[in-house]
Design goal:
783 residues; alpha+beta; Beta-galactosidase, Chain A, domain 5; Glycosyltransferase; Immunoglobulin-like; 8-stranded antiparallel β-sheet; 17 helices; 31 strands; 29% helix; globular; Alpha-L-fucosidase
């Protein structure tokens, strides 16, 4: 039944609505007081970057916490524009020989023009991530309100708003359940009959609102088009309101609750997206089922299930850098003063906020975290809210393995499986090559052709970089069954480069051509080049990991030999005339257009790779340090995040911490702790969490390196639950800048070496066993 005009359903104070909600939560289900892992504020959010994010991986909301009017901006992770498409350009193979000839002749601008004309994807733009719109609750005038507080408790994934008005204390508690797949809000007051509001929707989409009963309202619509064609997605956001006491009625496009003791709001959202080539889903059936199931349970049961699921992941890691009285201030005030005040607990909050955000926007079965993670208020998000895979998507997942969130990589790994399918078509159509390729962006429909412009999109190693995450999942988890599953993807990525690498006439090395060093202009007025350092480093890792996987799986012996032989023909890392690590195969760095460019692509070999280390390649490490010094510390949010990780790999604790303070400062962190690119990009949040992890513990080359970049700002502290490669869990305690105790647990009995400064100690732990180690009389010993 559809209600277009006001229609009233009277509910007596004693009516339980057992058919819908067996019980409204009892007092003992009310969440406890907040803690140091809580973002909190003394006023509602005015701007989107002041609102607080909730998410269950698939469904997201930004809670504003208004008094007169509450706004919840909504997202569902498959609501992008467009429809399935394949933009690979069939003119590519014919154009490639001339493009390469121009590059090797030094005619880079001519090569760029030919790429723009003959080698870009069609269409040249990918689709944007889009908002559903907003769910609004209108309460009336906000005058006489006092004792206001809104907060987000990271330990509970719970938003709470409280205030006092006309002698009544009002409370709103909101969470998005990863178990029941709905948003749940409870509205309550400390006096009976005081809960009244109108609930409706606002959306910029092509949509309509339908009232299905005095308890149920639905927003339905269609996604935006792309390249002159209509979108293929239908979306639905369904809300059911269940009040205890009072009256429920309908208005024009709204639900009305009057004089209730409390109320529960359930919101579900879905689209008809099933896969990048299948849009046969039924959004209505999904939301009806989710709402019906959730509304048959009490708030207490829903909250308990949500809390258990969240804490099972979030509580794996704890961190303490110390605390000062500044930590008692509201979060926005702490951020505003962070550059001048001593607030080590803010860094710990930021660290855990990064983990919280990844839990909230990337769970098994969902889409991966995009440029905005999960949260976006626009139809045309900044940079489309896509998956930018020349750094940003990869940075999103840097904290996953070391901070004990391995299952959250499942959406990323699944996306790589999918782009290996579309990327195989692109490789064949555009390069006449085997295997698969992805350039610098992809989207919901898994497009893999070069896009945007030749200057930005002519970069064939995006998919190869993503393969590092597939390998890392194995390196941390050591599951041979998983390795067998991903090996064909690694092999396909390697096959593409075996077919497309060409010999540089000047040096004799094998290079990528055409390519770029993202997204930097060299001295010849373009980015187009052959064999940039980053490409060589990424392909070097890809070949090594593919060969290692084949060796472990005892397969493809001849292919393994071919890959390793080609790896030896790649351009090596080189040191330029200023002592810097060269960004290009030629020494152009000191004549580049932007000496402080945000990308530090050629330092991939230092981090996230470990081809360059202070111990094994000290000359290259010194050159990488020189490059960082030349680039400078201040940049966009994500670029600062990358620099934190790089300086930590160099063991420079004080420099690393000074850059971390820039990230935490008001120019690069919004009041809600979102990364201020600006505008908002979530990768800086994840880069910051990863960088702090690297300051405390690093693992590569069968080593676990303890406190490699500990700053004097954290003289005493602890971190528990970090993960090292090979299945190790690491708990660290330190005081007076000195390790007190490290406890190592081994899941698989693998070999490793503990490293603390100049100390090295081989680990001999059996599978499932643990041991503690510390400094005694100047030696690192087992305790």
């Amino acid at each position: 039944m559809t209600f277009s005009r006001r229609e009233t359903l009277k509910l007596s104070a004693g009516l339980s609505l057992a058919a819908l909600v067996p019980q409204v939560a009892a007092a003992q289900t009310r969440p406890t007081a907040s803690n140091d892992l809580t973002l909190w504020y003394r006023e509602p959010a005015n701007e989107w970057t002041e609102a607080l994010p909730l998410g269950n991986g698939r469904l997201g909301a930004m809670v504003f916490g208004g008094i007169a009017r509450e706004r919840l901006q909504l997202n569902e992770d498959t609501l992008y524009a467009g429809a399935p498409y394949q933009p690979a350009n069939p003119d590519g193979p014919a154009a490639l020989p001339e493009i390469r000839k121009l590059i090797f002749e030094g005619k880079y601008l001519e090569a760029q023009a030919l790429i723009q004309a003959k080698f870009m994807g069609n269409p040249m733009r990918q689709v944007s991530y889009q908002t559903i719109g907003e769910m609004t609750l209108t309460f009336g005038p906000s005058s006489n309100a006092s004792a206001y507080r809104r907060e987000l408790d990271l330990t509970k994934a719970l938003s709470t708003v409280t205030y006092r008005q006309d002698g009544v204390t009002y409370t709103r508690e909101t969470f998005i359940s990863p178990v029941d797949q709905v948003l749940v809000m409870r509205l309550s007051a400390d006096k009976p009959g005081k809960v009244s509001f109108q609930l409706g929707f606002e959306t910029p989409q092509l949509g309509a609102v339908t009232i299905e009963s005095p308890q149920e309202i639905v927003l339905s619509g269609r996604n935006g088009g792309h390249n002159g064609k209509d979108g293929a997605l239908r979306f639905e956001s369904r809300v059911r309101v269940v009040a205890s006491g009072g009256q429920q009625s309908t208005g024009t496009d709204e639900l009305v609750v009057s004089g209730a003791d409390s109320a529960l709001v359930f919101m579900a959202a879905a689209t008809n997206y099933k896969s990048f080539r299948d849009v046969s889903g039924d959004a209505t059936a999904i939301t009806k089922d989710q709402i019906t199931r959730a509304a048959s349970r009490s708030f207490g049961a829903l909250y308990s299930a949500h809390l258990d699921a969240h804490k099972a992941v979030f509580d794996r890691v704890s961190v303490d850098f110390g605390r000062t009285e500044v930590a008692d201030l509201p979060t926005n005030e702490r951020i505003a003063k962070s550059l001048t005040l001593n607030d080590p607990a803010l860094a710990a909050l930021y660290f855990q906020y990064g983990r919280y955000l990844l839990i909230a926007c990337s769970r098994p079965g969902t889409q991966p975290a995009n440029l905005q993670g999960l949260w976006n208020e626009k139809l045309n998000a900044p940079w489309g809210g896509k998956y930018t895979i020349n750094i940003n998507t990869e940075m999103n997942y840097w904290p996953a393995e070391p901070t004990a969130l391995p299952e959250l990589t499942e959406p990323l790994i699944r996306m790589v499986r999918e782009i290996s399918i579309t990327g195989a078509e692109t490789a064949k159509i555009m390069y006449g090559a085997r295997g698969w390729v992805a350039h610098h962006n992809t989207d919901l429909w898994r497009a893999t052709a070069p896009i945007d412009a030749a200057f930005y999109g002519t970069w064939p190693t995006g998919g190869a970089w993503l393969c590092l995450h597939l390998w890392d999942r194995y390196d941390y988890g050591r599951d041979p069954a998983y390795l067998r599953e991903i090996y064909p993807i690694l092999k396909g990525a390697s096959q593409f480069f075996l077919d497309t690498l060409v010999k540089d006439p000047a040096s004799g090395y094998m290079v990528t051509a055409p390519s770029i060093s993202p997204e930097n202009q060299h001295k010849f007025g373009t980015s187009i080049c052959a064999g940039p350092t980053m490409d060589m480093q990424i392909i070097r890792d890809l070949f090594a990991n593919t060969a290692r996987a084949a060796e472990i799986l005892k397969t493809d012996k001849s292919f393994r030999a071919e890959v390793l032989a080609m790896r030896n023909k790649l351009v090596p890392n080189q040191i330029g005339k200023a002592g810097q690590l060269q960004e290009w195969k030629d020494d152009w760095d000191m004549e580049a257009a932007d000496m402080h460019h945000r990308h530090v692509s050629h330092l991939y070999g230092l981090f996230p790779s470990h081809q360059i280390t202070t111990r094994k390649t000290p000359e290259l490490a010194a050159a990488a340090k020189k490059s960082l010094e030349l680039r400078g510390d201040m940049s966009t949010g994500w670029a600062i995040g990358w620099r934190i990780n790089l300086w930590a790999r160099l063991g420079e604790g004080e420099r690393t911490h000074s850059i971390l303070k820039l990230l935490l400062g008001p120019e690069r962190t919004y009041p809600n702790m979102f990364d201020a690119h600006p505008p908002f990009q979530i990768d800086g949040n994840f880069g910051g969490t990863s960088g702090m992890t690297e300051m405390l513990m690093q693992s590569y080359d069968d080593e676990i390196i303890l406190l490699p970049a500990l700053p004097t700002a954290w003289p005493k502290g602890r971190v528990t639950g970090l993960k090292a490669r090979g299945g190790f869990t690491v708990d660290l305690h330190w005081a007076d800048m000195t390790l007190e105790r490290v406890t190592i647990r081994s899941a698989f009995g693998e070999k490793a070496t503990l490293v603390l400064g100049a100390h090295r100690l081989p680990l001999t732990l059996k599978k499932g066993r643990s041991a503690s180690f510390g400094l005694r009389d100047g030696d690192l010993l087992r305790l």
